[in-house]
């Protein structure tokens, strides 16, 4: 199978919101991260790398609930070494939000106790 990108995403001109989001993950200020495209994680990690806090961001993901909208986004998260806790039951925003809302609290309890989540 050959992938053909239809369009490419570039970083926004103003990267401050993305930098703030990456810092919030690194500082443990985020409980749940919802990813709706594969480029979101690529850009988040790129900003963290550029500002020398990629490792703390990656560590931060270990204590939050990570939710993906679907297979393509999940594949990128896995390639980046980020564990997916929730994949939407149907690749639509409403399903992603509902599934995350229903499952995130239990996931957070387990992750923050250090228990493996299955």
Question: What would you say this structure looks like, in words?
Answer:
The radius of gyration is 14 Å and the shape is globular. α1 crosses α3. The termini are far apart. By secondary structure, it is mainly α. The longest helix has 21 residues. It has a three-stranded parallel beta sheet with strand order 1-2-3, with helices on both faces. The protein has a single domain, classed as Rossmann fold (3-Layer(aba) Sandwich). 52% of the residues lie in helices and 8% in strands.
Provide key terms for this protein.
globular; 3-stranded parallel β-sheet; mainly alpha; Rossmann fold; 3 strands; 118 residues
As a percent range, the share of helical residues equals 40-55%
CATH topology: Rossmann fold
The N- to C-terminal Cα distance equals 31 Å
Compressed to H and E, one letter per element, the order equals: HEHHEHEH
Rg value: 14 Å
Counting helices, strands and paired strands, the structural category is: mainly alpha
In a few lines, what is going on in this structure?
By secondary structure, the protein is mostly helical. Helices cover 52% and strands 8% of the residues.
């Amino acid at each position: 199978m050959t992938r053909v990108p239809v369009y490419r995403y570039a970083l926004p001109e103003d990267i401050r919101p993305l930098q703030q989001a990456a810092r919030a993950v690194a500082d443990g200020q985020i409980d749940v991260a919802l990813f709706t495209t594969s480029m979101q994680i690529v850009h988040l990690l790129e900003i963290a790398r550029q500002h020398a806090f990629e490792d703390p961001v990656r560590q931060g993901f270990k204590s939050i609930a990570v939710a993906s909208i679907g297979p393509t986004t999940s594949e990128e998260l896995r390639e980046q070494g980020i564990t997916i806790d929730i994949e939407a039951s149907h690749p639509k925003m409403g399903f992603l939000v509902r599934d995350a809302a229903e499952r995130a609290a239990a996931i957070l309890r387990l992750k923050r106790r250090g228990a493996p989540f299955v």
